[in-house]
Structure of AsmA family protein:
Amino acid sequence: MRKILLGFLAFVVLLLVALVATPFLFKDKLRALADKQIAQRVRAKVQYNPSDIDVTLLSTFPNFGLDIKNLRVIGVDSFSRDTLAYLPDLKVGLDLMSVIKGSQIDVKSVTLDQPDISAKILKSGKANWDIMVSDSAAAAKGQDTSSVNLAIQGWKMNNGRIRYSDLTIPFSFDARGVNHTGKGDFTKNVFDLTSNTTIDKLTATYNDVDYLTDKQVNADVAMAMDLNKNLYTFKDNKVTLNDFPFSFAGSIGLPNAEDITYDMTFKALATDFKNILSLVPGVFDKQFKDVQASGQVAFDGYVKGVQNKLRLPGYGVNLAVTNGRFKYPQLPQEAKNINLKMQVDNPSGFTNNVKVNIPQFHLDLGTNPVDGNVAIDGLDPMKVDGRVKANVNLAEALKVYPVAGITARGQLFVDATGKGTYSKTQMPVVNAAIKFTNGYVKSNKFPAPVEDINLSGTVVNKTGQVNDTYVDLPQFHLVLEGEPLDGRLAAHNINSPIFDANVRGTVDLTKMTKIFPLDGMTVTGRVSGNIAAAGNMADVDAGRYQNVKASGTVQAKNLTYKSKDLPQGVNISSASGTFNNNQIVIQQLNGTAGTSDFAANGTISNYLGYLFTPGQALKGTMNVTSHNFNVNEFMVDPVSEKPTAGAVQKAPAKADGVVPIPKYFDLVLNSKVDNVTYDNLKLQNATGTVTVKNEVATLKDLTFNTLGATFGTSGSYNTQSLAHPKFDFGLNIKNLDFQKAFASFNTVKALVPLAQVVQGVFNTNFKVSGEMGQDMLPKLASLDGSGLFDIVKASVLQSPTLNQIASLTTLPDLKNLQVLNKIVNAQIVDGNLVVKPFDITVGDIKMTLGGTNSLAGALQYVTAINAPTGKLGTTVSNQLTRLTGVQNIQGTDRVTLGLNIGGTITSPQVKLTSGSLKDQGKAIVTNVVKTKLTDALLGLANKKRAQTDSTQKATQITQQNAQEQLNLEIQKKKLEAEAKARQAIGKGLNSLFGGGRKASAPATTAPADTTKKP
């Protein structure tokens, strides 16, 4: 017995040791397997820290636990900025024996804690979750497809968030607080799957309309899974949306890689009106449980057909509400006599073929009746036949249905009918009247009410032709905190409206925008005026503004504007102007933009075309003055086209973005600015003319002072491509100090590195073009240009290059150069500076220099020195004897030395390459420089040709993708038309023979459960 006990204890100890040690033995193996599978099978960026991977056996026995923290899956290509999934804690249960054996690892369970999943489908149909490489594709590459086997028997999600967006429909939903569990044995091909799902808040949107807002969901679903046939049949299930329960019956199949088949019905599991009332936005709150409600509801429908790239399944919905009523206990009035019948039917599945019929709708809001009916056939074109009629006292309506934070009263009358076809060229015959009297609206968000609202108007179309629509608002009046606003409007001929309008009064924008908030914008201030306009938009489009009657006066005080695109804000302290149909005359305008002040006056023309006709430019001439203007505050990121971080700061020291030029401006700005801050420069007395047109700013005779020098420039700055802004300037600079230029301009540092060791001043007349970077500094690799440098006076001291030349030639006079009134001709080619040959005289020594230096600082210069032979040392004389073949070099009068200068400005390499008894230094340098310039120009031509070829290839790919999408749409339209024709033929035969299927019965009974056996 003692031996048995000892043996058992030994076994227990060994088992515990194994449980503790096994995870450490296999941790690296599992990590390597995960890395391999991700690299081979996932087309996405998968980010995680290896230290965030842990394994365990004690808490998951008999399964092996793999725990991964903070895992992110980020898309590629079109989704490179999107996170598909963020998994703070991913737990995977693995079969222990499969881990030990190692040939194939079986995944038994998956648990996700607080995951955030965002699924998207673009308009092109591309999905961000299409990231897995198929088994067949992996096998074709010779990759192992059997390393991991999904033998899942259970899975769980705790407190997750799932977002879905499909731009092809367009439909989206956002589910928060998702808790889900599921069980099913995926090791079998035929088994039952059960799951439970709860969602704390579900919001669903279709075509920018919220149909579900923060609804609660509880779903218990059981399905029969047949993996052999890829057929999934719903068994017992119940879904509750808020307090509305319903169920599914039928099946979903995946017969092939392209198609999904549906044969399903759904029905309501309760018939109380209160249950469906809970789906109305805003009703389901803490007070809903106390709402008194009665009446009956019937609801059922179907989904049947095939879904693929070309088709969607057919569907239908029947809804009936009979004698519905509801009443909030704390309110005196009730909504009653709610009766509704609605049928939605689309057996073909094509959205354009849908039919909606609401033959009856009625409700009484207290004593105020609302009636309506509508029938819709198709969407494009849409056949409509409907009417709505209501005469509602708003104060009584709010006694029936409360709207949080809103107080309203007044009588609202609406009577509108519409019958006919709505399309791009047609509209229904319409007769609509609206009248609002003694109106009053107040929101808790802003205490000042809008009161004394009185308006009446009509919308009439007697022919169904769009241009025969007449809108008449003969008067409107309202008062906002004692300030009245009055006006009128009449318009017809919608495609090119003929209008007659007048508005007069004062508007406090601070109050107005609190009542009607502007998303992402803040506007304050007061604007008053008396504005009248009458005319034809056809005249506006054609530029015949003399035929348009427009006149008025406008004054603004303390007007401010701030937005996401302009976070520094604009403040107009005062402005006044007059206008007519031809132009606006700005008499005076004073304000600030961020920390910059400005004042302006001038004229603006074509403002009607700019406001009403897309693509027309605002024209005019303005005179602008400023004491201090900070350009850095207006920088824009070239990718997001949003203000950069630096632009939000109060007074940024550095420019960190692109200054955009407006697209539809055609303006001439005569500017005078006392002080300009641009990047790290301070400019004074900036004057000149700037013409803004087609996203190009053209500068003419712009002059300013900075760094003790005078600058003049003419040229252009082009932001037609905000990511690649271009410039083309002519520069005229007088008396600029070499040291200040080197310290202040990166271009000088890169292209003229010798300026670092030069004392003195220079002038230049230079033309240069290229591309601006995000920092509003030239991209050096893009520069091209040519011009002259006039060296007024310069001293080159302690230059490593001159020291080497002096040492090599034994000419100490060359260590320090003094240059006066020397003109140097230079050219910039593809970002490289090419200096054409120029002469320098140092005593009786003549020196010719030329060559090029690159952006990396590499020097490729050549110099020829003509000097008296007697000044040369023995070493140089010996080398010249070798180079020239002349034995008695010292017997000659003068000699020409040829030297190559390589290396960098701080570490030059000088070599003696030639010698001659002739004074041919100019020819030596000229030939070398000419060769280098030719090579540079040839390299630039090849580079541009390669860029053109790349652009053409990208364009071809884009055109091919667009053609494929067009072909797909054509096929969809064809199938849609065929389905509609079959429906019409079937309907005609039914009418001809007096038989066929009867019209859909009202939704009073639920459809049969097709999953039940007879």
